[in-house]
Amino acid sequence: MKAIVATELGRGPRGLQYLDVAEPVAGKGEIVVAVRAAGVNFADSLMLAGRYQTRQPLPFSPGLEVAGTVESVGPGVTAFVPGDRVLAIPAFGGYAEKVAVSAERAVAIPADMDFVTAAGFPVAYGTSHLGLWHRARLRAGETLLVLGAAGGVGLTAVELGVLMGARVIAVAKGEAKLAVAKAQGAHHLIDAEVDDLKAAILATGGGVDVIYDPVGGALFEAGLKCANFEARALIIGFASGDVPQIAANRLLVKNVDVLGFWWGAYADKAPAVMADSFRTLIGWWQDGRLKPHVSDTRPLPLAAEALELVLERRSTGKVVITVGD
Ligand SMILES: NC(=O)c1ccc[n+]([C@@H]2O[C@H](COP(=O)([O-])OP(=O)(O)OC[C@H]3O[C@@H](n4cnc5c(N)ncnc54)[C@H](OP(=O)(O)O)[C@@H]3O)[C@@H](O)[C@H]2O)c1
After folding, report:
1. What is the pLDDT of residues 148-204, one digit of tens each?
2. Does residue 214's CB lie within 6 angstroms of at least one atom of ligand 1?
3. CB burial class (10 A; 0-12, 13-18, 19+) of residue 175?
4. How far is the CA of 73 from the centre of ligand 1 (A)?
5. Residue nearest to atom 20 of ligand 1 (CA)
6. In what side-by-side order are the strands of the sheet with 227-235?
7. pLDDT value, residue 105
8. Residue of 215, 268, 311, 320 with the most ligand 1 atoms within 8 Å of its CB, for mutation
9. Ligand 1 pocket mutation pick from 51, 177, 189, 236 by most atoms within 8 angstroms of CB
10. Does the Cβ of 152 fall within 6 Å of ligand 1?
């Protein structure tokens, strides 16, 4: 089969090669998914740099989310049979024609959910839903500040925040990205490059109760200065490359909680919580309450270009790699 392969670390998307590799075999408790689409994530670039939470031995294929059909099932798998349509979250290996993944990391998808939508669904919606609902416990009537609001995870935080009844302030770079956040229901739009971000946030009508931050750096610092009493800051990621340093005294005086959050950890540490979240999200999708936004697709041989779109901040919502016809 064909796959996109990294043979050394530190070369970014340009180091990726489109190669013939051995087909995966479903081990105990695993399924092999014939991949029809794979979601692209900023985290793929961290894995290629050797800076992700987990490290894969070389060579490996990146790719943390896929959609396709079950091709085969390993010993002990009862939840799926060949031919089932699924989305799945392998720990790596999604940029390929096939991937083996634990059956517990796969979810059946509705018959009318296309593979591109399904491939871009789990990381973005899963992260924002578990983050806002399970970790930050966002409540209706609260104010949610979303940084990187037109990105993969940020845009779903906007949409879910609105759905959960929050007043949502979206921060993104430039008018086109802000228009995308607006289309997902954001109530207030602020350009990330505004002179005084703190003043701009406060001018929307007061401080914030939850900060959703996939960006880090100066944006996070400005957001934290706008925290209300008992605000929660959800640490999602550091797309800016700048990991914020937080002065504990600022947390004390406003009774602020800072919440570290790695969604992927729930697949192993608390799978029931993740499954519950997926049930809710897929139900909302079936009810027409979610509008997944995929700005770009590229075929598998052009996976490097797909990842570059994300890293160069030229995408909105998700970028998805298509596999096969
Ligand atoms: N904790 C978790 O479980 C979890 C799950 C998924 C993702 N993440 C993390 O969340 C972050 C975003 O992931 P994503 O897949 O949503 O990425 P993405 O689609 O690229 O979104 C990131 C956003 O960050 C903003 N940004 C600001 N400075 C940037 C810079 N120097 N380079 C690139 N982007 C910059 C961009 O918005 P503007 O151009 O509008 O500024 C961009 O839209 C990553 O750090 C990722 O590792 C964490």
Report:
1. 999 999 999 999 999 999 999 999 999 999 999 999 999 999 999 999 999 999 999
2. yes
3. exposed
4. 34
5. 310
6. 188-191, 167-172, 143-147, 208-213, 227-235, 257-260
7. 97
8. 215
9. 236
10. yes
**Which helix (H) or strand (E) covers residue 229, if one does?**
strand 227-235
- Ligand 1 center to 113 CA (angstroms): 25
Q: Where in the chain is the domain with CATH 3.90.180.10?
A: 2-121+292-322, 125-260
Side chain identity, residue 202? L
Is 125-260 assigned to CATH 3.90.180.10? yes
Question: Helix, strand or coil for residue 211?
Answer: strand
What pLDDT, in 10s, does the model give residues 113-150? Answer: 999 999 999 999 999 999 999 999 999 999 999 999 99
Mean pLDDT of the chain: 97
Predicted confidence (pLDDT) at residue 54 exceeds the cutoff of 90: no
**Confidence (pLDDT) at 325:** 78
What spatial distance separates the first Cα and last Cα of the chain, rounded to whole Å? 15
Q: What is the dihedral of CA 87, 162, 246, 45, to 10 degrees?
A: 30
267-319: per-residue pLDDT in tens?
A: 999 999 999 999 999 999 999 999 999 999 999 999 999 999 999 999 999 99
CA distance 248 to 60: 40
Closest atom of ligand 1 relative to the 313 alpha carbon: 39
Q: Which CATH architecture has domain 2-121+292-322?
A: Alpha-Beta Complex (3.90)
Structure tokens at 94: 């999604």
285-294: pLDDT as tens digits: 999 999 999 9
Cβ of residue 41 lying under 6 Å from some atom of ligand 1: yes
pLDDT band at 53 (very low <50, low <70, confident <90, very high): confident
CA nearest ligand 1 atom 5, residue: 127
pTM of the model: 0.98
